[in-house]
Amino acid sequence: MKRLHWEPRRAIYNLVGYDYQSPTQLKAHQSRAQTIIVCGGERAGKSVWLARELLPHLLIPVERPEERSFMLIGPSYHEPRVEFQYLVDDLNRLKALTEKPGFPNEGRCSLTTVTGNRLITWSAEDPTSIRGVSPSGIAVCEIGKVPHDAWGRIVSRVSTTGGFIIASGTFETATSWLVDLFRTGLDYGKDENATQRDLQAFAMPTWENTIRFPGGYGDPALTKVRLELGEELFALRCGAEPRPPMDRVLPLTWEHVSDVVFDPSHPAYVWIDPGWYPSVYAILAVQFIENKIRVIDELYYQKVTTEEIAQEAEKRPWWPNVPKGRGRPSGAIDVESPEAAAVWANHGLSLGRRKVKPEVGAARARSFLSPPRIVINRRCRGLLSECGLAEFAYPGMEVWKYGKDGKPSNRYNHSSSALVYGIVDFFGYGGMSKPLSQRKVGLVAA
């Protein structure tokens, strides 16, 4: 089913007394795209928009019985209950329900309209469960909490029916895949990728809801919130601006990302986090040019041995430039991986192995971020995703963040750890009379 045009939907909105709380709600309703994502601030009206966007489609007769199903999906069965209740209230006003909706205290909810269309709620906790139904339309609430795997299955579900997808959520809990998708959708009609995917995205800031905040951006209640949160968090939580997570261990920005490539006139070094099989084995290839660390390449693989990834590294154009032989520093590796270091030694590498406390090592790496003394090739997806700037390379991964104890988590930090090991091994912790970096590769210490 194609999304309904604006005019027939407006007639239904008039019947239920829906007056579009914000300009962005109206623009999103009027969009002609088949996939729409609305990311909003707190209390911006995104749940109302999602329910009202779905409502008219539940009332349109569909000829083929197999295309009369619709889905309302959330991170769990709990989240869609808000939108489901909005729909039940509107359908009751229109006397458009055939029977009392299935609305248990927990689990799946369902309803059937007088046109024979059926809506069921669904949980994305197990993405593999999104199967067996080919709906005419899918609504997704709290999309920022929905796994990327689930989104892929949602897209697949409507591919056979030509159905639509509408989604709403916030950026505060979002992972980078949503930020990437959202940015693509902002270029609908201008960018070929967005247009081919028939995807349009809208940002709905809190202050557009003038029913709750009559003063708009300058409303006293929002001014108080802004002062409490600070500008950065306020922009994320209320301004609907896509920002990386606030609690990242390595707060890289796009200022640190470029198209840097291998320069054959300079040596290259490898910084390695071997991980634990079958986890990610991460290698960063770096060069030191113009007093900056240039991360020119990355190997980021699951379920590989040191020997397997070493053979892959030897195929890269920078490999001949890596110093080899005893007494010629080739790079750095986790101190707790002597077996891996021995395998690399068989390939000619002499790797530094220095014990690094996570919180101290992370702080040393951060000292290179401002002013920027690290620049990373944008193809280094593993490192960038761990820092909240790219889509994750593997399902189930997250941004490297601080734990509840205030220390860096020991998860999702593969290439990030390689970066930390290398910086500490090559540059030390700072404040040394003769910087380790000068002893190793002749660099100026940070």
Write up what this structure looks like.
There is one protein chain. The protein is of the alpha/beta class and about 450 residues long. It has two domains: about 5-235, Rossmann fold (3-Layer(aba) Sandwich); about 255-440, 2-Layer Sandwich (Nucleotidyltransferase, domain 5). It is about 30% helix and about 15% strand. The strands form two sheets. The protein has a seven-stranded mixed β-sheet, with helices on both faces.
Major sheet summary line? 7 strands, mixed
Share of helix among residues? 25-40%
Q: Order the strands across the largest sheet as they lie in space.
A: 3-4-2-5-6-1-7
Poorly predicted regions are 431-439, 442-446
Q: Give the strand tally.
A: 14
* Text of the CATH class of the largest domain: Alpha Beta
State the end-to-end distance.
Answer: 59 Å
Number of helices: 15
The H-level CATH homologous superfamily of the largest domain, spelled out, is P-loop containing nucleotide triphosphate hydrolases
Element-level helix/strand string: HHEHEHEEEHEHHEHHEEEEHEHEHEHHH
Q: What's the rounded overall pLDDT mean?
A: 89
Give the name of the CATH architecture of the largest domain: 3-Layer(aba) Sandwich
Strand content: 15-25%
- Overall tally of structural domains: 2
CATH fold group of the largest domain: Rossmann fold
User: Which secondary-structure class do the elements indicate?
Assistant: alpha/beta
Query: Rough shape?
Result: elongated
